[in-house]
Amino acid sequence: MMFDREHRKAATKSVVARLLQFFFQGLIVIAPIGITIWVVLGLFNTVDNILPNFIHAILPNLVPKDAQGNFQKIPGLGFIVVIVLVIAIGWISSLFVVGRLVEVLDKVLESTPGIKFIYSSVKDFLEAFAGNKKKFDRAVLVNVDGEDVWRIGFITQQSVTDFGLADHVAVYVPHSYAISGITYFVPNHKIKLIETISPADTMKFAVSGGVTEL
């Protein structure tokens, strides 16, 4: 009886641990996309609601009212303003003084327990695609299955000696029609560098399942 109770308790702990692992893994996958969509939509809705009043205050005859007496929104204008605003913020953040403030805030967030895990995961994922530390810029063919069967991947770490693997590299292999992928540690001799196709086109080809024309 005691053995069965301990066995059930251990099994319960194992299930809970696995569920927590899957939860955090799912959070890492959806957080960058969810946060990006939330920010963009939030900006769009805010700007779209403010613009008609702002334009009416400057040019009263430019923005008509609807039957309920509300100012009509100008289709597409909010989207354009949001794009310009994001570009302007990116430009301002590249300036030295603002850049230093961003670095200080970055260090604070990187050092805050709880927030650090989500913030660093989102930051690294986004920078891997479009930041200054772009990682998906070395497209390769990688052999991780049977002989003469190759997958499309991207070298993310040139050295993985910290894992006790010499002459290996870290290769991220994206899934088709998904935002997920798998990271492999692969020997150098099982990798072929793709030199005739740009990394961006290679990524589109892999994610589209090979239907995108090169």
Architecture overview:
- With 214 residues, this protein is an alpha+beta fold.
- It is built from five helices and five strands, in the order H-H-H-H-E-E-E-E-E-H.
- A five-stranded antiparallel sheet has the order 4-3-2-1-5, with helices on one face.
- A hairpin with a 6-residue loop joins strand 3 (168-174) and strand 4.
- The model has no long low-confidence stretch (mean pLDDT 75).
Largest sheet: 5 strands, antiparallel
Count of helical regions: 5
Mean pLDDT: 75
Uncertain stretches of 5 or more adjacent residues = none
Question: How would you describe the oligomerization state of the chains in this entry?
Answer: single chain
Structural class category? alpha+beta
**Based on CA inertia axes, which overall geometry fits?**
extended
Strand order of the largest sheet: 4-3-2-1-5
Global Rg: 24 Å
Q: Report the strand count.
A: 5
Order of helices and strands: HHHHEEEEEH
Helix proportion of residues, in percent? 40-55%
**What is the domain tally?**
2
Measured by DSSP, the beta-strand proportion falls in: 5-15%
Q: What is the terminal-to-terminal distance?
A: 65 Å
